[in-house]
Structure formats: C-alpha cells, structure tokens
C-alpha cells in the first residue's frame, strides 16, 4: 500500500502498479516546482551543474555518521564487503568543493557525514532528501551509524534504536517554524530495526541490543555530564536522571537521532539508527579508553550495517 | 571591578590587585576539582597528555567560525597582518588527531572551527573554556566570525551583533538540563561591539552595520526558507515573518550566536559576533552568487577582526 500523507503537497515519483507503488521519496514543498535550478549549497552540488540522476540514480542505501573520516572508512569497508573494491582504489569526496560535509559512493551505497547535533544533520538531510528526489531514487534505506553514551551497557555494545526520545523520554521532536512550535513524530521503521538486531545476532562478534535512544541538544549539561565547563547539579542528581531514562527504556544518548527519524519519516525513507556505546554513563563521563579500543568500537555499527546491506543485496539478486 | 556571579562554584584564576582583578576565565563546575585529569575529547587534547599552559597560556584572542578551511585561512591572514608569518610557514592543525574540530595558533591568536549549529559549537565551547582555564589564560576576547543570511541588507554587508535573539526575537536561550528548561541570557559585550563597528568604519572597504542577530536551530524551515525538502507555508508567510524580525531589529540570521553569547557570558569571556550577510533573504533563499564573490564576502569578517586585533595589540605595546 502506498503511504498516505494528509497534506501531500507534491506527488511522489513512484509509479503505481496494480494498486501497489514503489517506495518513493517525497519532498513536501510545492515551491520546488517553480525553481529553475536547485543549488544544494552545503554539498556544493546542484541540478543545473550536475547530472544528479546519472550520479545517484542507483543509490539504494545511504549511511550517515558524524565524522567525515569514519564515513570514508565505511566506504572502503563496504566496497570490500560487496566485492566492489579495486586494488589501490581511492574514493573521491563528491563534496570536495566544500568542507561542510563529505560524501562517498560505491555501487548502490552512499556514505555522507553530518557533523554533530540536530541542526547540522538537519541541513544535510534537507539537501540529501532533495538530492535523492532529483536523482529519482526509489526504495532507499537510510541508516545512521554513530557513537553514543550507553546507560547500563558494557562499553562497545551496539544499540539499534527502537524509538528516538527527547529529554523527557517522549518520541517527539519540537521544531520551530515561523517562530511557532511544530511537533513531529520520531517513529522509526520497526521491521528494519528487528532485521538489524538479527544481523548483530548473526555476526555474534559483539553485543547488540535494541532500546530507546535519547537525543539531546548538548553533550555536557544536556546529557547530565559532570565534566563540562559548567555544572550546577550533583552526582546524585545525574544518577537519578539517568535511572529515570533507563526506566523509560533509554539505553543510549546521542545528538542526531530525533530529527533524523522525523525527516526520514516525512520523506518516506526507511530509516534506522545504529550507534555503539563508547562508555557506560552510569560509571563515568570521560572517554578514557585508548584510541585503539575506541576505534574498534566505532567500527562495529559499520560491520553490522555492512552485513545487512550484503544480505539485502544477495536476497535481491536471488529473487 | 571583578564580575560577580550569584552561584560562584569555582573561583576565577585572576589575582586581586588594589581591589581590581585581571579578567579571568570562570569554569562553574565544582566536580572538575576532583578529576585527576581532564580529557578534552573533541579536541584530542588533555591535561595529562599536553602542557596546556605552555601551549596556550599566551592566548589573548580566540576567533571561531563554522568552517575548518576558513579558520585555517584566518590564521594565515592574521599571521601576515601581525608580522608573524614566515616564508612558506605552515600552520599545523593542533587537533590533527580528530576530525571534529580544527585549531590553529599564531602568537596570541587562537583560531578554532565549530561546525554548524548550537549543539556543535556548544561542545567546542565547553572544551575551549576548560582549555583556556587549564592554560591559565586571562583577558581573553572571543569573536565568532561567520556567515549569515541578511534581512534588508546588501549582500556582503558585515553585521556586528548587538543582541542575539531567538525565533521569537527575545535575547534568551533555553537549554534543557536534567530534562528541565533553563533560560540563559545571550547578552554580548556592548563596548566591544561598538569598537568592532568602528573598525568597519576605519577600514571603509565594505558596509558594516550593528543589529540584532536571530539564531535558529534549522537552516531551512527554521529560517522561513522556501527551498528545503519540506515547506508548509507561503511566500507571503515567509515575508511577514522576516518583516516582523526586521521590525524587532534583526538584521541577519545564523545558527550559533545564542549559545556562544550565553556560554561566553557565563565564563566571563569578552565576546562578539561578526557575520557577513551572504544574501538578502527578502529577495531569495538560494546562494546563487559565484564562488569568487561568496569567497570575497567570507573574508570580510576576518579583515574586520584582523584590524581590531592589530589595533588592540599596538595599543597594548604603547601603554
């Protein structure tokens, strides 16, 4: 069944076939129709300067993460996993003309960095959704592969997000539009989350759990850390807040999942969030593990999502 | 007179002399006292791995901006302006071990990138404030040199911020701490803003104005743009909102000034925001100017702040 939207301002690109339709990408903006060109400024790409359908039309998976280095290393990793890597291959940054975001592509997999925090990922997603729309992509799955602080988890545990919740543990995102609050749902694709959890079990290389993810606007005071430049609360206040979060099903805390979930939902993109917990926040705030250990942890979401993509592509070859 | 704070949890470093005191940097966090080391994770620096007083003790000016490339080019520029550049000098990135932020230093001037949006700059500022505190810096001035969208301004105009206001045009920042809202003042240093405006007049190379700056959490819907992936309002709604903003004294819109102002105020840092308006939002939303033109515009805040730093350093040599 085609997804319906109450206020569908622009039709999706998918063609109806026997009452069903391809899973297409929506942009909900009637103004785009009247624009002669669309400049995706923060990607240094545009509809009149680049042939977006030729460059991106075959994209089926988009992986996003905060760090540009990590997104490049993911591209190298997935190329090998999919048998698409060539000796001495270098993957050029498609957004080389700007330092705002980095973007890499290998086969049907696009990898994009988004910086830190809701505003930074939100700019990237506006432009990514328009890019996929202009490129006439269909059936796209987007996964955020990130890092986070865990609650009551062994460091290195991978968390697949069930619901992205706010600081009051509600699955909602309040955005301000024309000075007024608008509340959006942060619901993610339940089936996709279960499939990713299963991938973690298949691999059996590290612990993978499913749980709620709290998304905050700040890393220090916003996450009850005691080691910021300012702190007006006690260790006990911190522990009480994290215990409340745990009781509400929160297993990790990061800074992008809510707007990621909300924007993917609005544009009909199948979406998931897979983050590794770098530490257990009940036991501390600072990242004291060695560089090598942290580096190993950061590769786990890549390995899990790499396994998922391989599985999906193999299944589609067979069918 | 020493600044007073109602809840002074930690004493400043400044020594009292004849009833006056050096302008010192506050951290308001009693927990820092009990930490044996402080890892500034997103800078890849720390108190037990780096001699922060030796590396940063002489810093008197910190310039921050979104783009790492721009902050490197500012360092090259200010080195020349201050006569501190050497032939073929390269300025190494002090945070080379991470891709979260970039940091450069020449003489008393530190230059740090902060990415896009309030959460991204907030992480950087927590660690910058602790860095300056650990390094025992005094009398530090911090200036954000950025880009913005103008309202009713000729593209290329430089705006010195009088007040940083929220989407309802109020000089306040609401932060969530332990799940509860805390409101902080976004007041900036009025005297410093006037001095910077005067520098623009001295230079007479481009238009410089003083005005309020609206700080938003989103670039597209949050700034009433019509060209995002989603837009549920009309051109008229947009124009009405921007007209309201203009009537409230807003002359430009960006995404970092409010938390920058709030955190600098809390830590007793003299702070200013100087942003160039890349376009007039009353006339459009997309950045259609050529790369060269935009590049020239982006250099203007650097030129203005470079002039200010030179003037201040010359004055302190004479006195």
TrEMBL record, chains A, B:
InterPro entries named in the record: Nucleoside_phosphorylase_CS, Nucleoside_phosphorylase_d, Nucleoside_phosphorylase_sf, Uridine_phosphorylase_euk
Binding-site positions, substrate: 223, 225
SUPFAM superfamilies with a match to the protein in the record: Purine and uridine phosphorylases
GO CC annotation terms, alphabetical: cytosol
Domain Nucleoside phosphorylase as annotated: residue spans: 60-309
Catalytically driven reaction(s): uridine + phosphate = alpha-D-ribose 1-phosphate + uracil
Similarity comment: family membership: Belongs to the PNP/UDP phosphorylase family.
Class of this enzyme: transferase
Pathways per UniProt: Pyrimidine metabolism; UMP biosynthesis via salvage pathway; uracil from uridine (phosphorylase route): step 1/1
Example GO BP: UMP salvage
Positions bound to phosphate: 100, 144-147
Cited Gene3D superfamilies: Nucleoside phosphorylase domain (3.40.50.1580)
Role noted for this protein: Catalyzes the reversible phosphorylytic cleavage of uridine to uracil and ribose-1-phosphate which can then be utilized as carbon and energy sources or in the rescue of pyrimidine bases for nucleotide synthesis. Shows broad substrate specificity and can also accept deoxyuridine and other analogous compounds.
Annotated protein name in UniProt: Uridine phosphorylase
Superkingdom of the organism of origin: Eukaryota
EC numbers for this chain: 2.4.2.3
A GO molecular-function annotation: uridine phosphorylase activity
UniProtKB keywords: Glycosyltransferase, Transferase
Coiled-coil region list: none
Entries under PROSITE patterns matching the protein: PNP_UDP_1
Source organism (scientific name): Carassius auratus (Goldfish)
CDD domains named among the record's database cross-references: UP_hUPP-like
């Amino acid at each position: 069944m085609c997804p319906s939207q109450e206020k569908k301002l622009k039709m999706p690109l998918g063609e109806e076939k026997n009452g069903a339709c391809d899973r297409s990408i929506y942009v909900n903006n009637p103004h785009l129709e009247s624009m002669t060109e669309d400049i995706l400024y923060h990607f240094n790409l545009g509809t009149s300067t680049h042939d977006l359908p030729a460059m991106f039309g075959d994209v089926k998976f988009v992986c996003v993460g905060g760090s540009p280095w990590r997104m490049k290393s993911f591209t190298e990793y997935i190329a090998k996993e999919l048998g698409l890597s060539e000796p001495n291959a270098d993957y050029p940054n498609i957004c080389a003309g700007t330092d705002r975001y980095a973007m890499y592509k290998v086969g049907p997999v696009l990898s994009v960095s988004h910086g830190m925090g809701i505003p930074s990922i939100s700019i990237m997603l506006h432009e990514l959704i328009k890019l996929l729309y202009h490129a006439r992509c269909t059936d796209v799955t987007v996964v955020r592969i990130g890092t986070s602080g865990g609650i009551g988890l062994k460091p290195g545990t991978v968390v697949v997000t069930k619901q992205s919740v706010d600081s009051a543990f509600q699955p909602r995102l309040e955005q301000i539009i024309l000075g007024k609050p608008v509340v959006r749902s942060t619901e993610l694709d339940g089936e996709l989350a279960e499939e990713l959890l299963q991938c973690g079990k298949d691999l059996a290389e590290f612990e993978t759990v499913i749980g709620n993810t709290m998304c905050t606007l700040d890393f220090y005071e916003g996450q009850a850390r005691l080691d910021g430049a300012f702190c007006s609360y006690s260790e006990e206040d911190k522990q009480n807040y994290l215990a409340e979060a745990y009781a509400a099903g929160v297993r990790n805390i990061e800074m992008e999942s809510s707007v990621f979930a909300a924007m993917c939902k609005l544009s009909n993109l199948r979406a998931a969030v897979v983050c590794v917990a770098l530490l257990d926040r009940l036991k501390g705030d600072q990242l004291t593990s060695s560089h090598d250990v942290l580096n190993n942890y950061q590769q786990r979401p890549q390995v899990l999502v790499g396994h998922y993509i391989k599985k999906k592509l193999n299944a589609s070859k067979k069918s």
